[in-house]
Each structure stands twice: as structure tokens, then as C-alpha cells.
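Lecture notes, unit on binding sites. The following record was shown on slide 14. It pairs a sequence with iron/sulfur cluster.
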Amino acid sequence: MSEQRVLADAYGRVATDLRVSLTDRCNLRCSYCMPAEGLDWLPHPEVLTDDEVVRLITVGVRSLGVRDVRFTGGEPLIRRGLVDIVRRTRELDPGLELSVTTNGLGLERMAGALAEAGLDRVNLSLDTLDPKQFATITRRDRLDDVLRGAKAAHEAGLTPVKVNAVLLRGVNDAEACGLLAWAVAHEYQLRFIEQMPLDAQHDWHREQMVTAEEIFERLSREFSLSPASEPRGSAPAELFLVNGGPAVVGVIASVTRPFCGDCDRVRITADGQVRNCLFAREESDLRAALRGGASDDEIAQRWVAAMATKLPGHGINDPTFLQPDRPMSAIGG
Ligand code: SAM
Ligand code: SF4
């Protein structure tokens, strides 16, 4: 049995929420995430095997206080071992909160198996309900598959189905209210996320970003929004009751009102690097430790050391800000 530690940093924050990227590959090409031609994917041998992924999660849960595990990517549903990885993670502890962030392609087929394996819920990404607009934003004509995936997840009990939407100025920003009406009607919980400088093309421009304040103002034209009673805590979304509730909508002001002071996250990339922040410029190589024969305790120590250097904030609003080398899809959003 290895020693119990926590993933604490120098600012008193403790990470208990682990984001595990299962692949950097994707079957969509969202314009704010990656270029039309895709990226240079990680070579297969560099990607952690299913056993390696489960071993790192086991160390996180058993020795380091991890309580939430979110599988992401790239697109996690294209990882062949996903259901098995979920099942093995669930077997570690029935009390863990397990979720997947997905673009929804293939979810219709997999939702039942994921629920049966012990997944609690899904976060589905969807920025528009217009098929043409969907094809423009994601460069693939697949809106129907995503809508069917959301429905299947809801029916499989992977609830609340949270829907993440990024608004792009002059593209889909006029759809904010339409998206909310749709989400409320289907009992999905919609959350708008400010666009962040994490695209592979480095095309992010502050003036183009639709701010949380603008989103709130747009939604308020058609809905009455009042603060939901729960305090925001380490959850990044500011939640509002829609027309008095019970439906809620979230607005995640990652750029204009950063929540770094309450951050409880840590990330592992598909090639086994610990990142203590989405915007970190340094990583710590747990794959080398794994493949070099390190014990669980040695892996835990290396992971703890990686957290100690976490910076107080992401620095997007500093004049000296530098975008991290890896884009969002290769980090795990
Ligand atoms: N492929 C899956 C998906 O789309 O849900 C998981 C990975 S994706 C990188 C995770 C989330 O990051 C998605 O909700 C996506 O909209 C969001 N995202 C990607 N690039 C972003 C950016 N530049 N700013 C804000 N959110 C972004
Ligand atoms: Fe793929 Fe998700 Fe990036 Fe869209 S946001 S290209 S679905 S990884």
C-alpha cells in the first residue's frame, strides 16, 4: 500500500478532479480547435495503453485523493478501449464521479454500454442547431448524429446531459437563445464557454471572443435569469435559473472572470504527461516513469512534484501571455 498524499500546489489548492485524455485524434474539425486538415497525431507507440491509463488513474484515486475522473480528448469515443477503461475505473471506487466529454458522434451506439460500465454522465459539445452552420463550424455534416447521441445519453441515464457551447462572433452568436430553448425542452443543462486561446492555428483574437457578459445580456432578452443558489466553488460555471427554474444555464467566463483561484483540476495527456493547468508550459512525463518500471509510490511522488509548480493563474490577460505548445485537442479539454 503506497503512502497517502494530496495533489496540492503552493497556493493552497488541491486537485481532486482528473481529466484524462484518451486520444488526440478527432472525427470533427471544429474551427476554433483545429485546422481543416487535422494535426500531426501522436504516433501510436507514444499513446498510453489501456493498462497504462488505468494504472495512472489507480494511483490518482488510491494514493492522491482523486474523486472525479473525466475522459476527454481529442474525441474519447474513438478510443477502442473506452468502455473497458470506464468499467475498470468504476471498479476502483463506487463513489467516484465518472464522466466523458464528447462531440457525440457514435454516442447513440455507445451510451448504453457506457452507462452499464459505470459512467455517471456525459458533457456533449454542440455549438449550433442549424445543420449548415454545424457543417461550417465542425467541417463535417453530422448534426443529426450528435442530436441522436444526446437523446441516447439522456435515455441511458447519463444525466444531467451537460451541453457545452462555444459562441463565435458573427457565426453562431445569434443562436444563444435558440440553444437554450432547445436544451430546456430536452432537459439538458447548457453551458456557454468563452473561446480560449488554445486553437492549433493560433487564430484566437480577444475582440472576436463573445464574452460571458454578452452571453448573459443576449439570453436575458428572451429569458429571465436569476443566480442559482449553489455557490460557484471550484465549478467554473456561473449557474442561473432559467425563468425561475428548475432549468439552469451555465456561463463559463474562463477568460474574462478566471476561476483559477478555485481550480481543483489536473490533466493527463494521451501520451502520459501530467499538466497542472490547461495553459501550463511545462509537463511532467509519467509515461517514462511507467515504462521505466517505477513503482506506484514513485509515480505518485513524481505526480505530486508536478503539481507543486502550478502557477496561480492562466495569465491569458497578461501582456506576456504565451499560448501553450499543445492545442486543446492534444491536452484534453
Ligand atoms: N472532442 C470532445 C468534445 O468536443 O467535446 C472533447 C475534447 S474538446 C477539446 C473539449 C471541449 O473543449 C469542447 O467542449 C470544445 O468545445 C472545447 N474547446 C475546444 N477548443 C476550444 C477553445 N479554443 N476555447 C474554448 N473551448 C474550446
Ligand atoms: Fe474535435 Fe472536440 Fe476539437 Fe471539435 S472541439 S475538433 S470535437 S476535439
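Take-home: DSSP finds ten helices and 14 strands in the chain.
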